[in-house]
TrEMBL record:
Signal peptide: none annotated. Its cofactor is Mg(2+). SMART domains: NDK. Belongs to the NDK family. This is Nucleoside diphosphate kinase.
Length: 151
């Protein structure tokens, strides 16, 4: 099954939004398979956002992302990469519809509270960057057969 890397950024952690964000993925029926709080180094973040090196906002992005603990997670389930992005909303919160995480909880593109992998390939790379294989759990939630007709 598909997995995606979702991270609550330092502003989301500071603002007490860890619970509400986790709740949305849980109640959708997705499965939490890894989670930890960590303050990421500059090198780690430059690696995570390597595609954006050279953008004018890059130094600010790295400073923001390293400013405090991040809640790093792996979520699993059917089409979770695409649905995770849809649940987050647009990069710019002002372009995110109400009902999405960014559309409900934030305003500024430089303080947009959460990250989600943008493709299955990116998800694989990001999960490998943020988690050791043994930190990712394999388990069957009690509700599994009530979420999926056929696994
Ligand atoms: P992530 O899920 O964090 O990767 O966001 P995204 O995939 O929606 O956007 P992208 O990967 O293009 O940019 C990564 C992050 O850089 C965004 O989430 C923003 O926090 C920040 N960012 C992107 N564009 C801008 C911008 O124009 N200005 C500023 N200040 N920050 C930006
Ligand atoms: Mg991105």
């Amino acid at each position: 099954t598909e997995q995606t890397f979702i991270a609550i950024k330092p502003d989301g952690v500071q603002r007490g939004l860890v619970g509400p964000i986790i709740s949305r993925f849980e109640s959708r029926g997705y499965k939490l398979v890894a989670i930890k709080l960590m303050t990421a180094s500059k090198e780690h973040l430059e690696n995570h956002y390597s595609d954006l090196a050279g953008k004018p906002f890059f130094p600010g992005l790295i400073a923001y992302m390293g400013s405090g603990p991040i809640c790093a997670m792996v979520w699993e389930g059917r089409e979770v990469v695409k649905m995770g992005r849809a649940m987050l909303g647009a990069t710019n919160p002002l372009a995110s519809a109400p009902g999405t995480i960014r559309g409900d909880y934030c305003i500024d593109v430089g303080r947009n509270i959460c990250h989600g992998s943008d493709s299955v390939d990116a998800a694989k790379k990001e999960i490998a960057l943020w988690f050791k294989p043994e930190e990712v759990q394999s388990w069957k939630p009690a509700q599994f057969d009530w979420v999926y007709e056929k696994a």
